[in-house]
Amino acid sequence: MSRPFKRFLLLPLFVCLLASVGAQTTGNAGTPAAVSEPAAAGTTAADAQAQQGTSETSDTSDNGAAAGEQQTDTNIDSQSPAAPNTAENPAEESDGAGAVSASDGTPSDEIAPDTPGSAGTDNTVNEKHNSNGNVQGNAVNKDHSKNGHIPENGAETEASFDEGEADAALQKNRLQGQDLSVRNSLERSLITHRFEGGVAAIADSSVTRSFFAAGKDGFITRFSYRTMKPETWQVSTMPIKRIAAHPKKALIAVYETDGFSIHKISLWDWQTKKQLYAKRFTSSVLSLSWSAQGTYLFIGTASTEGITVLDANGNVKKVYPRPPGIVLLAATGPSEKSIVTYGETGRLVYADIAKKSILTQYETEDRLENPELIKNYTQIIGYKNGNVVVVKAASGEVLENYPARSALFAGKITDSLPVWIEKGESGRTWYLCQGDKKSPAFSLPHPADITAARHVDAAVVIGTDDGRLYRLTQNKDAEILLTELNIDVSIPIRDICTKDSKIYMLSGSTLYASASTADKPEPVIQSVSGDRCTVYGNGFLFWSAEKNAPLYYAEEGQTPVVLYRPRERLNSVSVYNDTIAAVRAFSGLVLLDGKSGKQLFTYQAAGLQDAVQVDDTFVLITKSTGGVIRQPILLINIKTGETIPLNMDGDIAFSVQGNNKVANTFSCFRLKTEKSEQTDLMTMKLDTAYPARSSFAAALSYSDEDLQASLYDDGYAVLTTLGKNQLTYYDKRRRSSRQLPRDYALPRKALMTETYIVSVNYDGSLSWFNRRTMQLLQYKTFTEN
């Protein structure tokens, strides 16, 4: 039975000077870095195995160039996404072992490398494709205490230093030599962020005296041990599932996935906010960890290959003569001579890294959930059948079983006993446990499930499914005290639109207006229902792309009224004179009278994406290629009902837009998947008299799928988020593109006035740019005040 205790002896920070202390974990799934004999022995289990003879040997080379040596789990498609902007996303390369670098790119061609937040650059070369498959312009220029207790005040060890001064020095060094936009961007990253969708992982980085937290919204925040000052950067538009902090440097490995087909590992330099490389995998990643010194990155997958080992440059290193099976944990000893893996079948496999041979194997408890390493690499812990199981790493012997209702592991490599968060009886209470000790029950101030936990410095940090982070300490009565670390009072902006040179911002249930960066946003329409806004006549349409909701109309100062009640959510809404084109998610197009809401025309078809009325006769529709008509773009004659496929190939077209400056010119995106996935920004000139004469051109290309891309076409230029990175400004007349500096958050949607470019970002913040210089002018968030 577990027993209570009077003082919080729960998490003694065992000072271990006889073995490496650099292993990092990867959040709630825990994949730490090395296995050893007890610390007193001074030799880890993995290193001890490296001194024995080999039982299997492979004479293959490191690069695994032969077909039979390839890591078959990794995607070998050389046309995965890549970016010429090496400061953000280095170019994709296919290495000899079958792994593919897959950096999310930015749509331009041969662009000079930018640092985060750097100014835009012009490009005017006439190449269509780079050799590495980059995104391109197709006609564009080229923490411990002495007594082992957690100090009540969170004091640090004798070895600690003034982290406030250290952080200040770090910021100073990073900002020196940077231009204004870069400095501004890095300074703006020092913000508090609550993770939308929840906290996915927490990783300790003792070498930098900090820890990282990652969310399902693609954001990562670093917190200093002492000051708890946050530093936030969005690394992906997809959910992050695992992270692993480098044991020696300010590097962070990230696993991001859409939960279906996209599985990507990327490595980021946190000081510069640069992505160093990225790899695409064909199956889900089950573990992510570094070797003890950070020489290798271990990626355990659900494939038959089991594990991919990457060197410092992201190249695949061949280690095993045959695949070890599905790997849930991988580690080395401090010498990094050998690697040990734990698989779901309960097999511990030791391999010599240099000789590419199997040293020995042991059978132990199988199917341990979320296995981690403790006691300086000598013990493996995991959860199974209502018990926290402790296994001796050097032999597979089961050392201990601790009964537990559940276990979310929160330990670090130097802990001598397993540490975990356990659910209480009520479902709203929790316990902090270490071995057979259990804290008094505690509850969260904002009821939520705990999704991540980590022993950080002199405390435990937990993350929840509502995106909050808490630091757990205790008072003299051993009660758990919680300090919220990421209090975020901002209110996200959900959508933006422009009318009469003003920017209109939809936040909460209010539409605000602002004409410039100097203006304070003023509320103009309240009681708004919906998450999208579209300009119509003297007012605005409000609708929802996320749920079934009515289409509303309101002018400034008025209360929105229902114009149309669809039976499903809407994919898109556009306006032509007094006609509204609405694409319903499942039943196709409907044209509405803007004044009465009366249905004027319907076109029922599945797979419709967007619609724009061209003139009094034709509507332009984008769609997927399913059904009888294979072309992804159509003209519909609303007078006769005739359907005219247009001669543009591709699997799907979406986000079509017109403009009021240049007649019959439109822009959209096209996705092609025949040879490899590629998303193109298409510009088109329609000939309604002779539709076959309509012309199409790929202005920008991105060598991957980007179905979340958005665009804004003002007739002379197109502004786009294509490439999942920075905004790109494409000048139609000059056929040139220019990248805008990115902020700490990635842009989700942008628009232009004569003076400004404005983007609403994935966290609901707003970025203002000077349209002429492309310089970032201002960053804004809304709060309740």
From TrEMBL:
Residues making up the signal peptide according to the UniProt record? 1-25
Look up the domain of life of the source. Bacteria
Positions with biased composition (Low complexity):
29-54
Which residue ranges are recorded for the region named Disordered?
Answer: 28-165
Amino acid composition bias (Polar residues), ranges on this chain: 55-80
Which InterPro entries does the entry link to? Quinoprotein_ADH-like_sf, WD40/YVTN_repeat-like_dom_sf
Q: Gene3D superfamilies of this UniProt entry?
A: YVTN repeat-like/Quinoprotein amine dehydrogenase (2.130.10.10)
Q: List the keywords (alphabetical).
A: Signal
Give the protein name, as stated in the record: WD40 repeat domain-containing protein
Q: Which organism is it from?
A: Treponema vincentii ATCC 35580
Q: What is the lineage of its organism?
A: Bacteria, Pseudomonadati, Spirochaetota, Spirochaetia, Spirochaetales
